[in-house]
Amino acid sequence: MLGGIALRRSYRRLICGILILCTLLLSGTAFAGEVAPSSKGASLVEITTGRILYSKNGDAPMPMASTTKVMTALLAVESGKLNEVVTVPKEAVGVEGSSLYLEEGEQFTLLDLTYGLMMQSGNDAATVIAIYLGGSVEGFAAMMNEKARELGAKNTNFVNPHGLPAKNHYTSANDLGIISAAAMRNQDFSTIVSTKYYEMMPKGSGTKRTIKNKNKLLWNYESATGVKTGYTIEAGKCLVAGSARDRLEVVSVVLSCPNMWDDATSLLDYGHENFWLTQIAQEGEEIATLPVENGELDTTPVLVEKNAYYPLRVDDSETVKKSIDLPSSVPAPVEENQVLGTITYSLGDTEIAKINLMAGTAVNKQSFFFKIKRFFQNLF
Fold this sequence. Notes:
380 residues; alpha+beta; Peptidoglycan synthesis regulatory factor (PBP3), Domain 2; five-stranded antiparallel β-sheet; 10 helices; 28% strand
């Protein structure tokens, strides 16, 4: 009787142990569930590739308030004029909304104005930049739209550089994510938006301004890298937030979002927990040998030109396919690193990378004496 009780207890302990072990194993491999942001539109974009990792109403046009300034700043840092001194024109003084309270005639470098634009959200700074680079607000808006088309933003139209309400001024969450990812790939831009405090120093007479970044994630979210807040009654609360962790860099976008801080960071966490930046191509990897016609060597190794990375789900549910485009042979002479063909990497029906295939070894064309030598070698 006592032996039977002891045996049953041993079975219970064994079963409990197995259940505990399974729980631990599952918790170690579990992946974060889907997110449900309260925003009207949302997007999560990986910075280096521009892959959209999450989207909610991602293509719906919406007002975006001061997140407009991501594009304004991108054009400023790409202008090559950051060290030029800019004089504040009369048209930029007293622009409504958030302001640096610039005064007519004050002079700052374009770099300082861009810091004021992104950290303090100065609408007056946006107007100064627009007039300086575009000749007018309208001219600069045309530049903004041209850049948006270049980046592949199809549901975006800019009317002004600051995001104050205006007819036909809109973007989509996906478009703003693509624009912001492109901006974060610029070192000057990423430095500006990750700065917590900055001193704007006027050239000559004027008032020094010490500014603090309005993006509180720089203090409250460990891996935060920027980017821009925004609010108008029409647009609601808007936020573009960046994060870099474990080689994965992402930006989240929430438009018209009552809980913008929580929702933006939930999207960032979702990205980091569910995706990693995976190497899909390795520089120098030999993927084939190619026959060489009339060469002193019969073949040359075919090597991948460069590394390539792409964000893939951590659960290995996504498979990258390779497609090699090579001729059946190549005539001599062949130079080392000569382009022989291409290798294309695809995810589903989407091409994600296309890389040159190079000759790994130079091959000389057969000379007359080489042919004689080979002839006699073949005899014996």
